[in-house]
Design a protein that fits this description.
311 residues, alpha/beta, D-Maltodextrin-Binding Protein, domain 2, 10 helices, 24% strand, Arc Repressor Mutant, subunit A
């Protein structure tokens, strides 16, 4: 067995199917299939189980994959050490950030990072996809109850949702004082596509869950902020979306005794444990964690321990 064969196996398992592996290796699917079959015959063992759409590693295939991934990571680190000596940080970093938090909070951070490290190419996606990491994404920022066990998760702190409205709306219509009243108000918020909005509300040990029907829906939180300021209804949004307007008195809150949650109460920085973090990537992760630590305590409380995947 040689390094080329291990690399082929790693790419096949990472890609999930032969066609995608062929695209990454810039060869044909038939060529990938041929070399995989040749490797399995040379070992006398089945390394992957093939279906029409996916490949899944066998136990021995997974063990070889882990060895191959370790070797590739070490080689990548060695190449980076040689090429980066005496040079500025270089490389490409793909970052997937939530549309609202990314635009309102992280945009300035990422601009500052790019100014500080001009040799690094930043590819920033503003999205709210439910999946975690893909080939073009090295770091994903996600709000969720718990991070996936398959990923390394670094805490960026808690997320606090508010029920709020413009001062003008509150003066004209009043504010809901109970969860039932909230359900009867015109609501402005984001929802998961194809699912009903289920709001979880906590007060001490008490937990309630209510289904709500918003009248203004968007994944674009700056747009929701404008709707709230225009007096179109009661918003259910993270505090960072409207905190400055609360401070100025233009927006007022209600149901403050409850801790509200839609997508989760914690924000995580996620990356793959099998993907070797380059100097550029490590620098970016440390930069973002440090920036999260500069936010007000009620918005973010940084935890500095990795929650590593169980393998």
């Amino acid at each position: 067995m040689d390094l080329q064969s291990l690399t082929l196996l790693v790419e096949i398992i990472d890609s999930g199917n032969l066609s995608q592996a062929a695209r990454k290796l810039k060869t044909s699917r038939a060529n990938v299939s041929y070399h995989l079959t040749k490797l399995e015959k040379s070992l006398g063992l089945q390394l992957v189980r093939r279906t029409t759409r996916r490949v899944e590693p066998t136990e021995v295939g997974l063990r070889l994959y882990q060895h191959g991934r370790t070797i590739m990571n070490e080689m990548r680190a060695a190449r980076e050490t040689v090429t980066s000596l005496g040079q500025e940080l270089r490389g490409r970093i793909g970052i997937s950030v939530p549309s609202g938090y990314g635009q309102i909070i992280m945009s300035d951070w990422l601009i500052e990072f790019k100014e500080r490290y001009p040799g690094i190419v930043l590819d920033v996606l503003f999205e709210n996809r439910a999946d975690n990491l893909r080939d073009e994404v090295d770091i994903a920022i996600r709000v969720m109850p718990e991070p996936p066990e398959s990923l390394v998760a670094r805490s960026l702190g808690t997320v606090r949702y508010l029920a709020c409205a413009s001062a003008q709306y509150a003066a004209r219509h009043g504010l809901p004082r109970t969860l039932d009243e909230l359900g009867n108000a015109p609501l402005i918020t984001a929802v998961v596509a194809g699912k009903q909005l289920r709001l979880r509300a906590y007060k001490g040990a008490e937990r309630q869950e209510v289904t709500l029907e918003p009248t203004l829906i968007s994944e674009h939180f700056p747009f929701l902020r404008k709707g709230i300021l225009a007096g179109l209804g009661v918003g259910i949004v993270p505090d960072y979306v409207v905190q400055d307007k609360i401070n100025s008195g233009e927006i007022v809150t209600t149901l403050d005794d409850y801790r509200l949650s839609i997508f989760g109460t914690h924000m995580y920085l996620l990356y793959l444990p099998t993907r070797h973090p380059t100097r550029a990537l490590r620098t970016c992760i440390d930069f973002l964690l440090a920036k999260a630590g500069t936010l007000a305590p009620e918005t973010v409380s940084t935890a500095d321990q990795d929650q590593r995947a169980r393998t």
